[in-house]
Amino acid sequence: MSTTDVTRRLASWIVGCRPDDIPAAVREEGVRTFFNWVGCAVGGARHETVDCALAGISPFAGKPQAGVLGRGERLDVPNAALINGISSHVLDYDDTHLKTIIHPAGPVASALLAAAEYQPMSGRDFLNALIVGVEVECRIGNSVYPEHYDRGWHITGTVGVFGAAAAVGHMLKLNEQQMSWALGIAATQASGLREMFGTMCKSLHPGVAARNGALAAFLAKAGFDSSLRAIEAPRGFAHVLSTKQDYNEILGGLGETWEAGLNSYKPFACGIVIHPTIDGCQQLREELGEAVNTIAAVRLRTHPLVLELTGKRAPKTGLETKFSVFHAAACALLRGDGSPTAFTDEAANAPELIALRDKVSATSDTSIHEASVVIEVEFADGRVIEKVIERAIGSHDKPLSNEHLARKFAHQSALVVGDEVTARLMALCWRLPELGDVGEIARASVPAGLRDAAE
Predict the structure, then answer these.
(1) Which domains does the chain have, with CATH numbers?
(2) Cβ atoms 143, 246 nearer than 8 A
(3) 169, 201, 198, 163: which is closest to 182 by C-alpha?
(4) Using an 8 Å Cβ cutoff, are 385 and 296 in contact?
(5) How distant, in Å, are the alpha carbons of 31, 210, 243, 312 from that of 213?
(6) With left for phi above 0 and alpha for psi between -120 and 50, is residue 255 left, alpha or beta?
(7) For 180-211, what is each residue's pLDDT tens digit?
């Protein structure tokens, strides 16, 4: 395959993709992707990370063009995209493209919904642009993963900017040259470091990707140019940020096979590699009953990636607990919890959880798949039992149903905006392809009292 026109050929496909080109099953997954994203964005809307971000940018924000989901504030389009990107990721409860560990919707949906409030569009067109954006970021991610990720880049931020640019550029009806420019403008803004995991900056990455991707599309629309080979050039994105460049992953089967149809959704609000441990420990809690209080030791055998990503031995904050397999095991065993309430500052410092967390050990085993775990529990009387999880709930083998997604949405959203707003919002999200103006969803996410105060 030619490696001299990857960016242009990808841009050509983005420009030409129409709703009827997308299979029904992929469109259905697109609705699920958006539904899950809205629930996560509203669920995270009152997190202190979002409060801090708003306090930092509000004095400099422009015209009130788009809303922050679940809140009364309205900001200019780029900053609304930024804040919604942060809130949708801050709970680490959002969607995951399991082949690359990209969280696709955060950058794409955040940028696109903010732009759609500024330039209204139908739900059908929105869904098409959303799927195009997700497809672009996941294919670019495939082309550089895992080497790109192993170098320390947070792939959701670095490739999410391409997805956001593609989605908003598609919405703006950019031509092929403009779309190539948009991808180039996105490429030169790609950022996000894995060093930031466990801090507020992790959720900043999809927010920045959303903001920068939207900006790339609007700049390209205005004639702002860039290299036309931003992805594949010797000093372009793929060569600078990765030792792997497989452009067949970008162009091969484009429009025929769909990465956007492979999205998955988290049942637990933390790093995806911890999910098998939580699933297994929750099952053990159900089986053991009061015997969980006599546990003397918990021994985990996991893939090396689990400890690399989530090996925080003594987390002090809620954000840090999301990257501690030791905390997650203890919380699942003692409280049966893997929802956002399991990963709070309170939980991080709860004496009973710390006591059990200190009894949890973990060893790396390359023979164990990264989506699996072996859990061995020893009791005070010397008895030992073992639980093996081959694939956790939420994986491709055990995907979340629409009903499960609805329960997840309702649980986190109701805590922020109440039951009535949540029910109305969920109904609108499921009807996305039928809506005449998708901005209705953003407006419906704000309780009347907050909306009136903002106005």
Answers:
(1) 6-265+409-454 (1.10.4100.10), 272-389 (3.30.1330.120)
(2) yes
(3) 169
(4) no
(5) 21, 5, 24, 32
(6) left
(7) 999 999 999 999 999 999 999 999 999 999 99
